[in-house]
Design goal:
By secondary structure, this protein is of the alpha/beta class. The protein contains 17 helices and 14 strands. The protein has three domains: 287 residues, Alpha-Beta Barrel (TIM Barrel), CATH 3.20.20; 108 residues, Orthogonal Bundle (Helix Hairpins), CATH 1.10.287.1400; 115 residues, 2-Layer Sandwich (Double Stranded RNA Binding Domain). A hairpin with a 2-residue loop joins strand 10 and strand 11. The radius of gyration is 34 Å and the shape is elongated.
Amino acid sequence: MNTTFKTMNPADKYRPYPQIDLPNRQWPNQVLTKAPIWLSTDLRDGNQSLIDPMGIDQKLKMFELLVKIGYKEIEIGFPSASQIEFDFVRKLIDENRIPADVTIQALTQARTDLINRTVESLVGAKNAIVHVYNATSPLFREVVYNKSRSETVQIAVKGIADIKAAIKSHGDCGTNWRLEYSPETFSMTELDFAKEICEAVMVEWGASEQKKVILNLPTTIEVATPNVFADQVEWMHTHLANRAAAIISVHPHNDRGTGTACAELAILAGADRVEGCLFGNGERTGNVCLVNLAINLWSQGIHPQVDYSNIAQVIRISEECTQLPVGARHPWAGELVFTAFSGSHQDAIKKGLTRQKDREAAANGATTMWEVPYLPIDPADLGRSYEAVIRVNAQSGKGGMAYLLERDHGLTLPRLFQVEVARAVQVFADESGKELSSEQIHTIFCGEFLARTAPIRYIDHTISHQGGVETLSATIEVNGATKTVQGTGNGPLSAFVHALNKELGSQFSVAHYSEHDIHSDTSGEDAQAACYVQIAHADHPPAYGVGIDANIVTASLIAVVSAINRNSATA
């Protein structure tokens, strides 16, 4: 069947969400200063969004992970929805798997039979929240439920009465009961009606400062920009009667891709609590990502009160339980988020890491502020090594290549020499079109600078001293023929250059020289030194050579030969 679009502009079908009349809004001037109360809904909202929901063993593993991370409020399921959900709640309670400082929460619709089943599942828990909801927006009232505003309020109030009756029926079971009410689709609900229904719930529960109700204001469907949601939250925060008897919670979804912004702005607007899932799991585009929010706080110097210092373990268990991969570019957690392929980025990171290391050493154990370009937090704080920070492909430059050679092979290249090494690496990268490993870069380095033995190959040398002058006698191979050359100078290097100029009939000189020990776990006679020599010649462009040997003099002579061989190859 052929289909044609009759609407020239699809946007004609939609209208902007109305702005909130809040002329004296305060949230734009607020600053985040502390972590909110967190609630993980991975085992409920997250679980119900999976293609294959978690079984009891998977739910238990996820629950234990959430406890280990430090979450104190965990929504563990929808026990009236299925037997497996009910059995899981009972397993946690009956087997004493819930730490004393952790509160479990269970969701139910505002229906008497479902409420009774939910309360029954929670009996005996030390701390339990019954979370009840009903939809409140005009679209849902009119299209889905065909209910008026007053009928919608009656549903919510009756639900609270049913919860109180169900709790009372179980007597003194040792459970500290709390209530959470969600006006579902709050993000599309008239604010005066959201206020009306929330206040009716608080009155029915008997809310007070000692018996607070959690009022959860969800962006059930994200329909506006984050500033609009912040206005909605601040309006509720400032207009709600008996505000001191309520904990305002938010439950952002990510339909517009701004769930994190909605959560952060809502906190600025007066929210006390945030509900979400690890790595943004949840219906449609997901719930707000708890990992993202927590580490955002961390990056601002605010302790999030949860622990992501072993992010790899959190990812592994989450992926195992949900069968959902964590994307390579997921904020803070993705495999590539701390990785730079760009040459300019790599150069900045390399310099920043070197400076940071020097500053930390100078601080002598005192806290040093983290200041590294392109790395807003220290990957090590998440249990990540620096091995993945800089990786090399055809887009990379000298900084990344030099960083890997120094980190993995102990070679600290002079800055001018990095350019020559980068050219050699770039040729290989362009040909392969793929990322190069540290070992591949080292192999290219060795082949280009250490393995050249033509036209000259160094074999051996001896040195004698007389009257402040050094005489060097060296055995070399020139175009396959073994020769002994001799020269004088104020040191072994200048004497060797003198000898080679006589033998080759050339006039080259040493333009740049540097050396260093190669960092390794070995010492003494096994230790190696690296020497870098740039030679200048009137008829050829300058060229660098490298020598590595246990003897620094030998290394310098090998570096001269390496430079001459490369100079000859490019002549």
